[in-house]
Amino acid sequence: MTQTASGKRRSKLEGLAGLGMALLAAIAGAVLVERLTRPGEGGERIGPLPLPELLVEGWLNIDGAAPPTRESLAGRHVVLYFWSTDCLPCLQTLPSLARFNERWQERGVEVVALASDPSSRVGAVEAAIRRVQGMDWPVAYGAGMVFNQLGVNATPTYLLFDKKGVGVWRGHSVQGLEDELSLRL
């Protein structure tokens, strides 16, 4: 027991309980801020946000072709998929994205995946690609600069750019992306 300035006795347990409550309040506040600042499953319309140059450390899945650029993507709807190999929801979403790509690529929609994983983790990115049947779109690694340019700080995130290269939608689900594209095509 300790004695307070007012002469009341207080146990160490009460002090620890107060500390625990303060810690819980801080965690709850952080969770609330994250929930309120992250778009919902349906996504949100954005714009105007120009498609940036895709400055990354390297590319996979391009089979000797030139990496995608703003110029090569012009005239098509472009989906930038932001992910990382240490993001379980990202890995779980890849099969859905492969089915999405199969349905929409013939309609002029181009998927480009941008992994935050640096070149030191390229093996993990390659392993993720091998595990998903139909994952045949360009995949970048070391894409931190593009994440920063577009203000992406949560994964998975999808950004949809129109045929003029202007960002028009941002969200976190393939279903929300399909809903938005259905309105546009």
From TrEMBL:
InterPro entries in alphabetical order: Redoxin, Thioredoxin-like_sf, Thioredoxin_domain, Thioredoxin_ResA/DsbE_sf
Positions of transmembrane segments: none
One MF term in the entry's GO annotations: oxidoreductase activity
Domain Thioredoxin: 55-185
Gene3D superfamilies: Glutaredoxin
Record protein name field: Thiol-disulfide oxidoreductase ResA
UniProt source species: Botrimarina mediterranea
The organism's taxonomic lineage, starting at the top: Bacteria, Pseudomonadati, Planctomycetota, Planctomycetia, Pirellulales
